[in-house]
Amino acid sequence: MYDRGGNDLEDAQRAIVGGAFVQLAIAAPSLASEIADAFTAKRKQGNERYPDMTPIFSELKSSGFARGLPTNGGLDSQRAKLECFALLDFFTIYRYLRGNWVR
After folding, report:
1. Same domain as 68, residue 22
2. Are residues 9 and 73 in contact, defined by beta-carbon separation less than 8 angstroms?
3. What is the spatial distance between Cα 22 and Cα 32, in angstroms, rounded to a whole number?
4. Within 10 A of 88 (CB to CB), how many other CB atoms are there?
5. What is the rounded distance in angstroms from the CA atom of residue 81 to the CA atom of residue 90?
6. Does 20 share its domain with 6?
7. 3-state secondary structure (DSSP) of residue 9
8. Are 3 and 15 in contact (CB under 8 A)?
9. Which domain does 31 fall in, by range?
10. Model confidence over 9-65: pLDDT tens digits?
11. Nearest Cα to Cα of residue 90 among 65, 47, 48, 77
12. Structural domain tally of the chain?
């Protein structure tokens, strides 16, 4: 599951809904995946950024302020969120691998 070291939120959501179907004795794995994927799509539609963020991040970046976004999420999903909100250019992506920070 996602909270146990996995990095794919969509797979975790499918596993959670699929597990609920199993516990409820509903033999419909494709329906479970469909429900999880519909939830993911709806969640992504509901995300919107605050309109003042771009000028604020631009000012912080041009002033030399360090910006960070700590997360326990997977690299691809976090990058997708920044891209979705047109904020990727305001961050440098680093990963912590084997005791070292790498770009």
Report:
1. no
2. yes
3. 10
4. 14
5. 13
6. yes
7. helix
8. no
9. 1-46
10. 788 889 999 999 999 999 999 999 999 999 888 877 766 777 788 888 889 889 988
11. 65
12. 2
